[in-house]
Design brief:
With 416 residues, this protein is mostly helical. The chain has one domain. It is built from 15 helices and no strands. Helix 1 runs parallel beside helix 14. It is globular. One of its GO terms (biological process) is lipopolysaccharide biosynthetic process.
């Protein structure tokens, strides 16, 4: 799935073991350098997704016909805006390794919770209130229990509908984080195992239909993430080149993932451009876009551009996540309210301004204020849980040993 619509959602919705005692994947590292232009690129990706949902996606909130009909020229470009999600996943494969390398599993879990949940909780509460109480015309069918389940970020894994369809990408991200955590716990967050994983994981995804047919259920699709694993894995290969240098093997793994990602995106992209917007786009167009996205991330991370810092890039990166979370349904609501009274360009500008202002408030007063503390608290909680689990396992081992010893004493020595 390459759009920001969750599979099975209504048409109006877009798109562990003993952690504390596990060895660290690598010696503690200094804070990773900030690649400022990647922050700016993330915001560009978010704006592309916004324009896709507002000016191309087949909703009727502009007042007459579909968004494509309301924006006949802009939609020719914004039909490709959902490729911002592909870019998110490539950058995520790079940045998650960059930020997690050298962390313990507990610190990794804590950092992800602190980073993801404050803005997400705000978005779920605000958007849920809108669709449940003030704008049921969205067609999103939710119960209060569904709304509460969405606060976990795991609702898709339990078949619960999203409050906002864009949340499907977070489920993909969470499963990718699960793979990174597994590599940490195994002590494989090192160059050799990582390059092998970046090659083998997407390869297994090619066989997901056969695995599913043989074993049943949908666990293979959930675990392997076949459509998007080449994007994450390609980002991982870029990180390995960035951090440890150029080798033919690392470049081969990167190019392999570019080819797989282009194939998956071309197949679904062309189909969904027709079904969701109404344009016929050849698969080859998506091949070029995916190759270009990888090339862009490579240019910003592997060339002297990685040292370029422009004013406002940190703020751009900080606004990306809340803009993405808040834009779709709230943007549609603003468009539906203002379209009868104002020209479309003005409505588009106002909707963008409102979403960016809301994203700034969420970042300034929730993410910055509560995110770091939540991350530290969660990390300490995971460490404590790991210590308790380790203590319980050792206690069980000692009890089993004592029971076995008493049993041998009762049996007595072997008469032979």
């Amino acid at each position: 799935m390459i759009t920001t619509t969750a599979p099975g959602q209504p048409a109006t919705s877009q798109p562990a073991t003993s952690v504390a005692v596990a060895p660290a994947a690598a010696p503690a590292a200094a804070r990773p350098p900030r690649l400022a232009l990647l922050d700016g690129l993330r915001l560009v990706a978010a704006v592309a997704v916004v324009l896709f949902h507002w000016t191309a996606w087949h909703h009727g909130h502009w007042g007459s016909g579909t968004a494509r009909e309301a924006w006949p020229v802009l939609s020719r470009l914004s039909v490709f805006g959902n490729m911002g999600v592909q870019l998110f996943f490539i950058i995520s494969g790079f940045v998650i390794l960059l930020s997690s390398y050298g962390k313990t599993p507990a610190r990794f879990i804590g950092s992800r919770i602190g980073r993801l949940y404050p803005a997400y909780w705000a978005a779920v509460l605000l958007t849920g209130a809108l669709v449940l109480f003030f704008w049921p015309e969205t067609g999103v069918s939710l119960s209060l229990a569904d709304w509460a389940m969405n606060l976990t970020m795991f609702q898709q894994g339990f078949g619960v509908p999203h409050v906002d369809g864009v949340y499907w990408t977070l489920w993909a991200e969470m499963r990718f984080y699960g793979w990174i955590l597994a590599l940490m716990l195994l002590g494989w967050l090192t160059p050799g195992p990582l390059v092998a994983f970046a090659a083998l994981w997407p390869t297994l995804g090619l066989f997901e239909p056969q695995i599913t047919a043989a074993l049943g259920g949908n666990w293979a699709e959930q675990v392997l993430i076949p459509e998007h694993s080449p994007l994450f894995a390609g980002g991982m290969a870029l990180f390995l080149i960035y951090r440890f240098g150029h080798t033919p093997l690392r470049w081969a793994v990167l190019l392999y993932n570019v080819v797989l990602a282009a194939h998956h995106t071309g197949v679904t992209g062309a189909r969904e451009a027709l079904e969701l917007v109404g344009y016929q786009v050849p698969e080859q167009a998506y091949w070029g876009i995916v190759a270009g996205l990888f090339a862009l991330v490579a240019a910003l991370s592997l060339t002297p551009l990685r040292s370029v810092s422009l004013p406002g890039m940190a703020l751009a990166g900080a606004l990306t996540y809340p803009v993405y979370l808040l834009h779709e349904i709230w943007g549609w609501w603003i468009i539906s309210v203002l379209s009868p009274a104002l020209p479309r360009p003005v409505v588009l500008a106002v909707a963008l301004a409102v979403v960016f202002a809301a994203a700034y408030l969420v970042n300034r007063y929730l993410e910055r204020r509560f995110g770091p503390a939540l991350g530290r608290w969660a990390g300490r909680g995971v460490e404590a849980a790991g210590r308790l689990a380790g203590s319980a396992v050792r206690s069980l081992g000692r009890s089993a040993g004592r029971s076995a010893g008493r049993g041998l004493e009762r049996v007595g020595p072997d008469p032979k």
